[in-house]
Design a protein that fits this description.
Elements (H helix, E strand, L loop, with lengths): L1 E3 L15 H29 L2 E6 L12 H21 L4 E8 L8 H4 L2 H10 L8 H12 L10 E4 L8
Parallel strand pairs: 1-2, 2-3, 3-4
């Protein structure tokens, strides 16, 4: 099993003002590294005729963003990378899927969940009225890597407390 959990977002603001270096770093870290890692392990999985690749994407890849454009683009690309790899490697019994978390209490999102105003606004508009915990995502990864997920491939499982279902 491979879990690709790469993420960086060195720039916050409109894409028109984003430096090329920040755009390239985001794409390199969030997409290209996943492609490289997958290519390192997929041949061995194919020899075994069994494997699971899980790419951690984001709900940011499901919608546009005025301030996180490159991040959103990279996470949408991760979803497509999973679909493509699922098609290419499926005949070898390799499953490739994405998890698209919402706001999870991780170090990466610390600036969002430690800000009391942002946290209160997020929790009040999330149907489950809470932030996600790392275990909420870990459980999905366990499912996708296990026999229970053996017939799931090329999919993106959204785990966001319901954020993307409300208007």
């Amino acid at each position: 099993m491979l879990v690709c959990n790469a993420a960086s977002n060195p720039y916050y603001g409109p894409m028109a003002q984003m430096p090329d270096e920040a755009f390239n770093k985001t794409l390199q870290n969030n997409i290209v590294s996943n492609h490289w890692l997958a290519n390192l392990v997929l041949p061995e999985m194919a020899e075994r005729k069994d494997g699971a690749v899980i790419i951690v994407s984001s709900i940011g890849g499901l919608k546009g963003s005025a301030a996180l454009g490159a991040y959103a683009i990279s996470k949408a690309a991760d979803m497509q990378l999973a679909r493509n790899l699922a098609v290419e490697w499926g005949e070898h019994n390799i499953r490739v899927n994405c998890i698209a978390p919402g706001l999870i209490k991780t170090d990466f999102a610390r600036a969002l969940w430690e800000n009391p105003d942002l946290r209160k606004r997020y929790e009040s508009t999330t149907p489950l009225r809470r932030l996600g915990e790392p275990d909420d995502i870990g459980g999905i990864a366990v499912f996708l890597a296990s026999r229970a997920g053996a017939f799931v491939t090329g999919q993106t499982i959204v785990a966001d407390g319901g954020v993307t279902i409300v208007g």
